[in-house]
Amino acid sequence: MRHIIYVFLATAVLMSACQKKVTDDIKPQDLLSSDVVFSTPQKIENAVLAGYDALQSPEFLSGRVLIYVDLLGEDIFDRTGYFTELPRFNLTSNSGIAYNVWTAGYFAIATANRNLAGIAANSSKLTTAKAKELTAECKFIRAVANFYLVNFFAQPYVYTADASHPGIPLITQGFTSNDPAANTPKSSVAAVYTAVITDLTDALADLPLEYTGTSNDAYHDKTRGTKASAASLLSRVYLYKGDYANAKKYASDVISGTYGAFSLNSTVDAAYTSNGGEYITDEGIWSIPNNVNDNPNTNNALPMHYYPTGRGDLAISPSYLSTTTNPYFAIDDKRRTLIITGTTSQTSSYKFTRKYTDITGRADWAPIIRYAEILLTYAEAQARLASGVDADAVAKLNLVRDRAKGLSPSYTVLSFANKDALIAAILGERRIELAFEGHRFWDIMRVKGTVTNKYDSDGTTILPAEPFGAKKNVFPIPQLEVDKSKGVLVQNDDY
Amino acid sequence: MRKFLTSLWCCLLLLSGELLAQTRTISGKVTDANGNPVPNASVIVKGTRVGTVTNTDGGYSLNIPPGAKTLVISSINLQTEEVKIGPANEYSLALKAMDASLDEVVVVGYNTIAKRSLTGSVSKVNGDVVANKPVTSFDQALTGKAAGVLVNTSSGLVGDDVIIRIRGGASISSGSSPLIVLDGVPITQGDQGQLYNHNNPLAELNPNDIESVEVLKDASAAAIYGSRGSAGVLLITTKKGKAGQSTLNYDNFFGFNEAARKMKVLNASDYITTVNKLRSNAGLSPGANYGDINSDGKLDTVNTDWQKELSRKGMVQNHNLALSGGSQRTTYFASLNYNDVQSYIENTEQKRGAVRLNIASRVTDWLQIGANTQFSRTQTSGLGSGTGNALSGIPFGPLTAMPNIPVYGADGKYYAGLGGNLATGYNVPNPEAVTHLNYDNRDGRRFIGSAFGEAQLIRGLKFKSQVNVDYATGLTDQFWNPDIGDGLGFGLKQKVYNERNTWSWYNTLNYNRQIGADHELNALAGTEYTRRTSSYTYTYGAGIKDPDLLLISADNYDEVGGENGIDGIDDGLASYFGSINYGFKKKYLATFNFRADADSRFGPKNRWGYFPSGSIAWRVTQEDFMSQFSFVNDLKLRASYGVTGNSDIGYFPAISTYKPASYADIGVLTMANPGNSNLRWERHKTFDIGIDAVIFKNTSFTIEYYNRKTIDLILDNPVLATLGFPGNIIKDNVGEMRSRGVELTVNTAVIHTRDFQWNVNFNTAWNNTKVIATNANNDQVFDKDPAATFSLAKPGYNLGVFYLVRWSRVNPANGFPIFLDVNGNEKQYNMNNRTWSFVKDGTNTTAIGAADRVVLKDKSPYPKFYGGLSQTFNYRAFDANIDLQYAFGFYLYNQTKQTIMNYGNTRNKSEDILGAWTKAGDNTDVPVLYWNSNLWSTQASSRWLERADFVRIRNVQIGYTLPRSITDKFKASKLRFYVQANNLYTFTGYSGIDPESNSIGNTNIGLGIDRTRPYLARSYTVGLNFGL
């Protein structure tokens, strides 16, 4: 009998060990439990960097977002109908395009928010300086996402005098569970811009001039938030807001070298072609990097959509090529060398850009802020602030134009009849210089312009003019989200 | 004297009577229902120990004592018969098989129980149903064999998914596949494919080893498996040796298989006409013409039937050698199997070699030990270019390749040009080339084994301990050639080695006792620990330098790389369970089961799940009042209620996790899963009520009703994007489903004479699975697979109900396609000016799009009625059987047809396109040919939704068994020859690949999408069964 008891006791001990082995002892080997993510400085930094990875989403800054802004404008047309009704301003409320942009943007914001909370709760594990720097990076990321989202899903800042019209929900909390607080109504566009400006201003204070101690500092400088990228983005935000004094101020700080040395490359294509599509030249301020292993893949990458041997969906529109409809684009402008003719039987009758060419590796970076933009922003703000034709504005315009111009002479103050002519030239230059980099439609809208000479997917039919203020200039709030919000989130007009 | 004489006479009389009785010998022959002799049957005079056993011919001879009145004749697996002894001296009889009886024993989890004592819902399928069938895995042979068990073979590609659903879908976001337990070992199932092909791991089992498959359907039966029981349980028992019966069996079959169907696409001449018509109607130049293939300056009239080029008569063969026997102490079963199925698709094949050894030994009176083991190696040759919508896959390639270009060019090499055609939207590499030059092969090895010891502690109390292992590995070896197809220009070699390992250990105490005459008690208590792990190692080389050297090395490739990791499974389960069966006077029966499971994947506080079930049964025929209804041989009413769980919930669903990711060159840590520390078990509450009856001695039937409610669904809850969770999903216990239905099984001997027997087995099931609720908003939930958004889960509708834009018709006036918008208004698309307008008044309007989708009520991929009808016939030495399978009341989305009805590319088209509208007044459902109508011809709509009802002749077999007189000459016990046709013909109105087509795999919502997966195979085989 005693033996039987021993046997059962031994079995019980063994069973209890077994129970532990098949339950408590099992932890994921390829995932980190969230409570250890903020346990060391290196892990915290890696978590913060995930915010950039979120911005790099194929549906967001590393691909689609830039395309949408250009496709709403008149410089390109959707040769294959890939983007369905988007170029016709006719998305439906359950559009996948709108849903994906919304989702990607809020994922970046949520990542930044969760990291802000994680840094705050674990600040003892970081030096004060590092905590500040990482906090600044999170705010930079959050500002970028909010800025792009508010421009897609709400009317431009200048739509109402005080920008009191509906914007997007402002999310500042880092959610880790299905928290009802995420169901927030839209804030006004003014409130969103204020939040973006606050974040960027905070970021500007604490972001580094340049990164040190990484495996490739130059790479980090061009792809993470820096003082220069925060200031540059601030100048764009103020420009969109119509606050030209501030737009000029921040552009000026970048140009004067306060945040590091930036300059235009000597040729028009070096920014895109150097280092195999990595924008590490002095012309690049902030870009979203891609590489052969991590890129938006065959259906979303910029080269796939833009380059004729890729998908080649996006052909350059006749209205961009023509000197009638694009009057500042001289026939001998060197930027025309960035335009090529399609090489396949399907594309040979169309023109394409060669800003993004890496079909095999799809490693082309996405240019978000180039120095040329800062020069043109400064020129425009300065021109608008001055009373007459401003020489400083003309000088900055010339910096961009002279690199590309053919035989025509440089501008002088005398080239322009009045201030408006100068502004028109600057805007015209901006269209040419920043083409296919995600600026065009918003540059028209912020000055209350109208999209004209926009081509349908056949490349011959001209679509109706799309005026400033048209309801469908903005994307629909994804209907799924409107439904899920149970009325808290209000659908945009006319959707 | 007279008195003496009288006495003497009396004595003589008595003596003679005595003598007469003592010398009486009776004899006879015992056969089974098919007329085969039954050896080793016991023949006993009732109430005595006088008896004998039959010889190999089934014959016996027995001296019977005086007063013997009844013979009892019995044999294993046959019904015991009693025969009255009359004046005759010969008593031959046929013993009926146990099947039609309630006396057989069924396996119910960790225990066995007499079927008459069963209170739950269990269907039993005998092993002969799955043996010797030309199928690639045994699960396919279960099709239509058990009521309520839906077995769906996704396609004819070897290794493709076989979906098993017991009583409809069991969940929305979690799994719905039954647990499969082989001799107590929970085995790995589900797709194991690593690259471009699927792999069904059940193909690694030898079907001929299977003694029986028990299907536990209701909560009473399945609750003993607790958290794993919600979708039902398949218990597979392999063959075991029997004491005193040594047998050696050799079974084989040979044959071939071919495609069971063929969708018709255009021949070269129709293709050219159609493509050019499409283009000319749109004002475009011609897009198709014959080309000058051999460069002789003349156009070559080529007509290639690509489907035919890629098809063949694939050889199938199977050899199975089984040795079985044993002494009173030790029994064994050993088998050796080789199975080779060459698919009808060129270059695809599955070969399996399997060995099994089952051994059990009674070491002492109180201790038995044993082991059941199998090892198999399964080599699968798959398509390197995949299936589905892969441009070079099968059948996409052969369906869409231009028919006016040749397989080979003038140089004898694979033709890679376009002939005289334009390449618009055409990117199909030569399908014959990629099928032969590319491959995706898998070499799988699998060991499944268990070892047990069972000790009788005291009378009626047994302790059993069993350890189990299922260890499966696969080496996938894939190649894309650098000359044509997917690998064009670089060439790619990939290798994946993956492992799945499950070990478990269970212990049971089983107390079995008859108390007095009236009480029967069987109690079981047990523990079980289960651990599942997985891993993979992946390497690749791209940019091949010398294609004849294929090992991945940095020297031979421009780029090499790889990684390793966990392959989605890493969990453990601790379980404690108990079961009580009680019977009173064999009349009133009750069962209570309980299981507590702790799963590592839940947070500590919600880890434990408790799964009770109870059931009662009343054997009405044991009541005295039933004696007047003598035609009712057995009648049992039963009811059960219980709770089960669903453990098919994925990889660490509850804990909040981060994973490494990249920001191009910069490594980051990003959220993988927000987790949900409150996540707890999904629970399924099932009520089941049934009647089991045997009437007129030879007809048994079971009818039952069930209602299964699933609550606390572990749903991939679609949440607000502003929360910022990956995929906008968080796992939550929200939502509810209801699955209910009626099942009927009838087994009957229609004709049963000495020479001719006709048995019928019919089963049918009606099922309805409805989503009651999802989350707090009752949001609609789509399949996880983004390619499966034609259907959804929506509260108030059947699971997987289709959600599509409604197709209306083709306008007979102009040939334009007409759809219905969300409000039911007809909108037509004018191809000439590319505008949409209302049909009723011609005013322009917005395009039809995703916003016009509506839920198509009652149109789901789950059949309303399904089942099977099996008939067996025996006439003297001949036997035949015919199995039908049927399913009614379900729909498929025919995306294959949609793909080959595209108006905007130069790929080949369906023959249906020849019926396109050409002139005013044409009534057709094919719009006018007009090039590049991307805007409508690729619009997913109900135009492609088809009712898929079908009746399939699943298997037909005719056999002839040589008479004993001949087989005796070479000392064999059995020699049977047979011919067999599998998947012979399908009656259906469905026009796609097959009414069972499924391209999404094992899912709940997105079933029923027919998207270019290969046709099912039809096989013809001849074979023999030989026994010693």
TrEMBL record, chain B:
A Pfam family it matches: CarbopepD_reg_2
InterPro entries per record: Beta-barrel_TonB_sf, CarboxyPept-like_regulatory, Plug_dom, Plug_dom_sf, TonB-dep_OMP_SusC/RagA, TonB-dep_OMP_SusC/RagA_CS, TonB-dep_rcpt-like
PROSITE patterns according to UniProt: TONB_DEPENDENT_REC_3
Record domain TonB-dependent receptor plug: where: 115-233
Main location: membrane
Segment forming the signal sequence: 1-21
Annotated coiled-coil segments of the chain: none
Gene Ontology CC: one annotated term: cell outer membrane
Alphabetically ordered keywords of this record: Cell outer membrane, Membrane, Signal, Transmembrane, Transmembrane beta strand, Transport
Keyword Zinc: no
Topology of this chain in the membrane: Multi-pass membrane protein
Subcellular location: Cell outer membrane
Family: Belongs to the TonB-dependent receptor family.
Protein name as annotated: TonB-dependent receptor plug domain-containing protein
Organism from which the protein derives: Niastella vici
